[in-house]
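Annex B. Sample input.
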Amino acid sequence: MAMLSSQPSRMAAYNTWANARLYDAATALTDFERKRDVKAYFTSLHGTLNHLLTADRIWLKRLTGEGDAPDRLDAVLFDQFAELREAREVEDKRFMDFAATVTPEQLEETLEYVNTRGEAKALPMGVVLSHVFNHQTHHRGQATHILRQLGVAEPPSLDLLYFALPTA
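Annex B, continued. Sample output.
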């Protein structure tokens, strides 16, 4: 966990890189295919991508006090793929901008928030950021599996190592 929470800027850059590669791969599919029910946790690739955006908006609102925060984790914020991708890029930039301001001392500070069930919670910001980045990776893995199910023969590798190797 130390690696994730101690380098928020690097992890935000990794998320931006991985999200762009995932969305690039998703352009090989039709709208029908992206929205096809494949029995994924959020039904489809489109549902999974919307969930990632939804969760990031919720967390950025908690972390910065700014932006829209949906009240449901399964909210479909954008029905059209192009609009969803544009919103993803904006949110990734917001995360990059936020991560660039985080100091090591802030990682130890407690973030108090209310979850989507209305329950009060408190966690160190470093743990929260580790969760956010891990959550993205988790669902991108599901999305990669969905791409394969839908016929994308070679989904992109989204491993952190492939991002880090050129800049390590």
